Amino acid sequence: MDKLYLNVDDVMALLGVSKSKAYQIIKDLNGEMSAKGYLTVNGKVNKRYLYERCYQEGAGA
């Protein structure tokens, strides 16, 4: 089963960023999702939303 949420290590590997930058990206994206009324999980980000925001196509999600 494919993961719905990515953790900080997944974001680091996917985007090639440091751990602190990955946490900031997760925090920012979760803030956007919360503002839209979605539930979020601290320290994890929805995989589909990350792909949509980073790649504008949702590729691979």
Mind sketching the topology for me?
Elements: E1 5-7, H1 8-15, H2 19-35, E2 44-46, H3 47-55
Antiparallel strand pairs: 1-2
Gist of the model:
It comes from Coprococcus eutactus. This is ICEBs1 excisionase. This protein is mostly helical.
Molecular structure report:
It comes from Coprococcus eutactus. This is ICEBs1 excisionase. The chain has 61 residues and is mainly alpha-helical. It has one domain. The protein is 56% helix and 10% strand. It has helices spanning 8-15, 19-35, 47-55, and strands at residues 5-7, 44-46. The protein has a two-stranded antiparallel sheet with strand order 1-2. The longest helix is centred in the middle third of the chain and has 17 residues, at 19-35. The chain is globular and about 30 Å long. The relative contact order is 0.20.
Major beta sheet, specifics? 2 strands, antiparallel
What does the radius of gyration come to?
A: 11 Å
Count of separate DSSP helical elements: 3
| Total domains | 1
SSE class = mainly alpha
How much of the sequence lies in strands comes to 5-15%
